[in-house]
Specification:
single chain; alpha/beta; binds ligand AR6; Macro_dom; O-acetyl-ADP-ribose deacetylase activity; Macro_dom-like; O-acetyl-ADP-ribose deacetylase
């Protein structure tokens, strides 16, 4: 089951929210900054022990002060024009997050629009990749696609069809 929801991902009560992190896992701006602020310093401490995450992979931590029990940190690609493997790396970021959720027996997960902010990935193209990948690898999970803005919400709804 996939739904689109517009708002702040840090407010959701789900088994895991996904963080659009960078390779250091040490925090940043955008949704990453919002998640670390809402979770509190314990999250950064745990991330520091993990020691980083390559692009397209994912790592799971506790949720600390969040309502979500876990945070799944994934690193999407920086958009470099589209011929540097960006599509495949974005699909990997979604797929590896879903795999981790299933390995940990989670039932519900919420994704932000990975890579479409600071990393510059075109949001319509990213929405199609998100929906395709979740349809292929998210079976039995309740998935919320979180849009922070209306344009992203519309692209996600369109991709869902
Ligand atoms: N809830 C839901 N979505 C949000 C929120 C929020 N609270 N805040 C922003 N978004 P971005 P990226 C949306 O830039 O492009 C960080 O510095 C935002 O509007 O957060 O993957 C990391 O450390 C956009 O639609 O992530 C990396 O260095 C989407 O989340 C870099 O940014 C993703 O935007 C990652 O860039």
């Amino acid at each position: 089951m996939i739904r689109v929801w517009q708002g702040d991902i840090t407010t959701l009560t789900v088994d895991a929210i996904v963080n659009a992190a960078n390779g250091t896992l040490l925090g940043g701006g955008g949704v990453d900054g919002a998640i670390h602020r809402a979770a509190g310093p314990g999250l950064l401490e745990e991330c520091r022990r993990i020691g980083g995450c390559p692009t397209g992979e994912a790592r799971i931590t506790g949720g600390y002060d969040l309502r979500a029990r876990h945070v799944i940190h994934t690193v999407g690609p920086v958009w470099r024009g589209g011929d540097q493997g960006e599509d495949g790396l974005l699909a990997s970021a979604y797929r590896n997050s879903l795999v981790l959720a299933r390995e940990h027996g989670l039932a519900s997960i919420a994704f932000p629009a990975i890579s479409t902010g600071i990393y510059g990935f075109p949001p319509d193209r990213a929405a199609r990749i998100a929906v395709e990948t979740i349809r292929a690898h998210g079976e039995s999970l309740q998935v919320t696609l979180v849009a922070f803005d209306e344009v992203t919400a519309r692209y996600l709804e369109e991709a869902l069809g």
